[in-house]
Amino acid sequence: MSGTISWGVVGTAGIALNKVIPGMLKGSRGTISAIASRSSEKAAEAAARFGIPKSYGRYEDILADPSIDAVYIPLPNHLHVPWAVKALEAGKHVLCEKPIGLSAEEATTLIDARNRSGKHVLEAFMVRQHPQWLRVRDLVRSGRIGEIRLVQTTMSFFNIDPANVRNRADIGGGALYDIGCYAVLLARFVFGAEPIRAVSLIDRDPKLGTDRLTSGIIDFGGGRQLAFSCSTQLIRYQHVQIFGTSGRIEIPVSLNAPQGGATSIFIDATGAADESGITEEELPACDQYTLQGDMAAQIFLGEMQAPYPIEDAVLNMRVIDALYRSAETESWERV
Question: N or C end of the chain: smaller count of CB under 10 Å?
């Protein structure tokens, strides 16, 4: 094994405590050396829970720690870009939660910050490292289901807690930012292309102000489309289907694959009503957060090129911007 990265975690959000930190601790290319919170008590509690050596009661303190090579940022959406910029300016590499910012314009500032600092900044879309999605992309590229034409995605959960960050419009809450960004990303990932235009319909919670149900169609040109719905106030569900001219791929657990568990995808080669043409393909057990952390470490150590540099995050935000504009103009919007 080559070198390792000393990580610092900037924040004690649920995604960090329940998913990312446990995943990173199983990795081979990094160690978590410190965690910070705006509450010294929360930071100390998280450090004790995971055996992290140091805790800080201010985000600034972890950036000032010379022993930290890179930071993982799981803060609320409106803080992603500001703290990523501060971390880069402090000489730290950055892995930041999705969505990278609140607009493509805001996200673009990270390109300049990266170039000035000479450090990497990456968006944490863990699905791109999961074997099930790598396999799906390989199947599509091989022509197994013919020419791919349609991606259909539904993602939802139910949460009406007004204090939850996902329900606060002022800090980037709402369905499209939280889970709709995955629908956009996975369609770009599978098609291997960038979309041309988008149209959307948004239903906003009258009290919270967030988009509680967003549906959209994204045109990738050449007869290729993403049709998706995402919601913060429907039964918990996630499902992706990819349709080609001669087959279909179904991914039943598209985002929250079990950490350390196997997953399955289903391939329909005939479209038979009795489902006789469907075969199941099981992918090996893994933790996508471990894979994400180890890949980021390899990039930071200069052992590999970043397959998805921050420019990719800007492209994803451009689509989200177009979807929000479309809901206002009630018309197609160029990406």
Answer: N
Determine the Cα–Cα distance for residues 193 and 64; give it in Å rounded to an integer.
40
Q: What is the DSSP letter of 205?
A: -
CA 154, chain centre distance (Å): 16
Domains of the chain as residue ranges with CATH = 5-125+291-308 (3.40.50.720), 128-286+317-334 (3.30.360.10)
**Which of 263, 268, 266, 262 lies closest to 280, judged by CA?**
266
| Residues 148 and 242: beta-carbon distance below 8 Å | yes
Is residue 97 within 8 A of residue 75, CB to CB? The reply is yes
Predicted TM-score (pTM) of the model is 0.96
Q: What is the DSSP code (8-state) at residue 16? A: I
The 10s digit of each residue's pLDDT in 286-316 is 999 999 999 999 999 999 999 999 999 999 9
For residue 77, the 8-state DSSP code is G
CA–CA–CA angle 212, 216, 221 (5° rounding) = 160
- Could you identify the residue written with the tokens 């390899």? 298
Which tokens in the block code for residue 207?
A: 């009290």
The DSSP symbol for 17 reads I
- Report the C-alpha gap between 41 and 226 in whole angstroms: 45
Cα angle 106, 90, 48 (rounded to 5 degrees) comes to 100
pLDDT tens for each residue of 132-175: 999 999 999 999 999 999 999 999 999 999 999 999 999 999 99
Nearest CA among 268, 234, 235, 232 for reference residue 249 = 268
- pLDDT one-digit tens code per residue, 209-266: 999 999 999 999 999 999 999 999 999 999 999 999 999 999 999 999 999 999 999 9
